[in-house]
Design brief:
The chain has 2 domains: 72 residues, Methionine synthase domain (Methyltransferase, Methionine Synthase (B12-binding Domains), Chain A, domain 1, Orthogonal Bundle), CATH 1.10.1240; 132 residues, 3-Layer(aba) Sandwich (Rossmann fold). Helices cover 55% and strands 12% of the residues. A 6-stranded parallel sheet has the order 2-1-3-4-5-6, sandwiched between helices. The longest helix is centred in the first third of the chain and has 22 residues. The protein starts with a helix and ends with a strand. The mean pLDDT is 89.
Length: 208
C-alpha cells in the first residue's frame, strides 16, 4: 500500500521460503491490499500516481510468483486477452488490470497499446480467451471498440468470448450500443467484471 516494491519483493521471497503457497500470498496478502487501494481511489483519497506505485509493488511480488502461477491449478481460473485500441497510447489502466488479473490467477495475454482491430480478432482466434478486455481513453478511438466487435462477428468468433470495455470516455450506454457484455469504470471494477463474466453471469451489466 506504500508502493515499496523492494520490500514487497523481499517479503514475498521470505514467505515462499517459509513454505507459504503462492496462491495464499496472493489471496491473503496482495489482493486485500489492492482492494483497499481501489476503495480509496474511488473515494478520491488516492490518485493515479499512488495507485500506479502500488500496482508496481504488486508486480514485484508477481515477478517472484510468476513461475509458480503457471501451474494448471492456478491458471484454471480463466484466460483474458487485453489491450488498448488502435490510435490510443494510454496504458496505465490497462497495465494495472493485467497485473491484478495475473495476481488473481488468470492467464493474461497483453497485446499492448495501439492495437488494430485485426490484431484483437487474431488474438481471440489464436488464444480462445474467456474474456476480451479493451480500453479506449480518447473519444476519437472509441469507435475502434465497435470495429472489433463487428470483425469478431464477421469471423464467427463473437459467441465464444465475453467482451469487457472501459476507459475515460466510454459509458455503459456506449458499451451496450456496441453489444459488449460488460463495462467497467476503472481498473478495480474491471477485475470484478472479469470475475463475474468468468462466473458465467449472462447479459450486459455495468460495474461502476
Amino acid at each position: 500500500m506504500d508502493g515499496d516494491a523492494q520490500l514487497v519483493k523481499a517479503k514475498t521471497e521470505a514467505a515462499l521460503a517459509m513454505g507459504i503457497r503462492a496462491d495464499e500470498i496472493i489471496q491473503s496478502g496482495l489482493l486485500p491490499a489492492m482492494k483497499i487501494i481501489g476503495q480509496n481511489f474511488r473515494e478520491g483519497t488516492l490518485f493515479i500516481p499512488d495507485v500506479l506505485m502500488s500496482s508496481r509493488a504488486m508486480h514485484a511480488s508477481l515477478y517472484v510468483l510468476r513461475p509458480l502461477l503457471t501451474s494448471p491449478k492456478l491458471a484454471a481460473k480463466g484466460k483474458v486477452v487485453t489491450g488498448t485500441v488502435a490510435g490510443d497510447l494510454h496504458d496505465i489502466g490497462k497495465n494495472m488490470v493485467a497485473m491484478m488479473l495475473e495476481g488473481a490467477g488468470f492467464v493474461v495475454i497483453d497485446l499492448g497499446i495501439d492495437v488494430p482491430a485485426t490484431e484483437f480478432v487474431k488474438a481471440v482466434d489464436t488464444h480462445r480467451p474467456d474474456v476480451l478486455a479493451m480500453s479506449a481513453l480518447l473519444t476519437t478511438t472509441m469507435e475502434e471498440l465497435q470495429d472489433v466487435v463487428v470483425q469478431l462477428k464477421e469471423k464467427g468468433l463473437r459467441h465464444g468470448v465475453k467482451i469487457l470495455v472501459g476507459g475515460g470516455p466510454v459509458t455503459p450506454e456506449f458499451a451496450m450500443a456496441i453489444e459488449a457484455d460488460a463495462y467497467a469504470a476503472d481498473s478495480f471494477n474491471a477485475i470484478e467484471a472479469v470475475n463475474r463474466l468468468i462466473a458465467g453471469e449472462i447479459g450486459f451489466f455495468a460495474v461502476s
